[in-house]
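fyi for ur records
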Amino acid sequence: MTSIFDPRSLRLLAAICCLAASTSTVYAHHSFAPYDIRNPVEISGVAERFLYRRPHPKLSLVDEEGITWEIEVPIRRWERAGLEADQIEAGDALTVRAFPARNGSPKAAMSGFTKDGEYYSVTEEIRQQSGNEAADAIERGEPLEEVLEKYSKPE
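which gave:
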């Protein structure tokens, strides 16, 4: 009979605990609360840089007014759409459909983009109850930091 204090059992238990802790941490930062998911915007400009990395690829886009937008790309949705890591390159002329930052800064979460006349959908709709609840809380005037803390957990 194996004891629960067997070294192999303890290593397995430690590995399971680490996996559980890291999974909850990874999911905790995937809220769309900082973005206005109800009012997407279109931003036309030139890609300054597209950094494809986990957990969030980032697009730096210089718009027609010379403002540099930092646009977060939901990687799982990008991959589900079948898009390649080099789908966007520096110098590409784009029109990005995105959910803008609520605080008015030039930041956004990508919904899709048009390049060379073709539209690429990344995520058209955020079906995230907590995202909508967070939007309501922000519209009621609750501080963004509190809303992020309250609604950052997955459903």
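Strands lie at 41-51, 58-63, 68-72, 93-100, 107-115, 118-121. thats all i got for now
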